[in-house]
TrEMBL record:
Gene3D superfamilies (UniProt xref): 3.10.20.30, [2Fe-2S]-binding domain
Keywords: 2Fe-2S, Iron, Iron-sulfur, Metal-binding, Oxidoreductase
Protein name: (2Fe-2S)-binding protein
Pfam families, per database record: Fer2, Fer2_2
PANTHER family linked: BLR6218 PROTEIN, OXIDOREDUCTASE WITH IRON-SULFUR SUBUNIT
Domain of life: Bacteria
Organism: Gimibacter soli
Every 2Fe-2S ferredoxin-type domain range: 1-77
InterPro entries xref list: 2Fe-2S-bd, 2Fe-2S-bd_dom_sf, 2Fe-2S_ferredoxin-like_sf, 2Fe-2S_ferredoxin-type, 2Fe2S_fd_BS, Beta-grasp_dom_sf, Diverse_Oxidoreductases
């Protein structure tokens, strides 16, 4: 079946079977490989993208459910908040193996879009659905706080 999707601001047509996870459409059909496969059951957050600005797990979002939404992947993450998060990630040297980082960054952008000045507890709660195999949670938390400070200044 053919679907028209709006991905990173561009309309794209894709051929996929109903029930195909958006993750596989993005990675295999659109070649947007920044979104990672981690667990396939929406637990780890590696596949996080934004649907209409809200962080969503693309491994459990079917392609037909993403029609008529604005899909943003890590490749399309732009704007003031995304730039602050990405700069903070570099400054705090968050990345170790890197597998989870696109999902972590997309969730952090979502958090700061909703709550520009989150407390440590709010950061932990919001980011709780994103697993990091390398356990860089302290640096992730610090980076989110730094991004929040950058947005204030």
């Amino acid at each position: 079946m053919q679907y028209e999707l709006k991905i990173n601001g561009q309309k794209r047509t894709v051929e996929a079977e109903p029930g195909t996870p958006l993750l596989w459409v993005l990675r295999d059909e659109m070649k947007l490989t920044g979104t990672k496969f981690g667990c396939g059951v929406a637990y780890c957050g590696a596949c996080t993208v934004h649907l209409d600005g809200t962080p969503s797990r693309s491994c459990q979002t079917f392609v037909e459910d993403a029609v008529e939404t604005d899909i943003t992947t890590i490749e399309g993450a732009k704007g003031r908040i995304a730039e602050a998060v990405q700069a903070a990630w570099r400054e705090k040297d968050v990345v170790q193996c890197g597998w989870c980082q696109s999902g972590q960054i997309m969730s952090a952008i979502g958090l700061l879009s909703e709550n520009p000045k989150p407390s440590d507890a709010e950061i932990r709660d919001y980011m709780d659905g994103n697993a990091c195999r390398c356990v860089t949670y302290v640096r992730i938390n610090e980076a989110v706080k730094l991004a929040s400070e950058k947005l204030e200044g």
